[in-house]
Amino acid sequence: MPRQKSSSYNAIHLWLHFHYGNALKCSKCGIAGKKTGRRWSIEWALKPGMEHGRYIERYDALCKSCHRKQDYDDKMKLNFSIGWLKRKNKGMDLRRDARGRLLPVKKYGYKKD
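Request: output the structure for the sequence above.
Response:
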């Protein structure tokens, strides 16, 4: 099969499953894979610093917990917390306190009677 320079995310994962099947155990914690509902508990995860492509060397077999820990960096934590606070506190702006924590600030507007 000829290798393409750019493939979609889904196409690459379909290629991985077709050629290598389900990953059997997590390469970090050693948990064995099992089927939960329609999903398999071990995922093919892109190694840090690599680009998606049709090369098995670029991927690790990781359980969902290890996969999330690997992909969840500080920037994602900040974006998640800002988005969560904005959704939780509708109609409020956010500001940082002296410690750098995000706090909601009420917007001034018309008072409804």
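The helical segments are 9-20, 64-71, 74-88.
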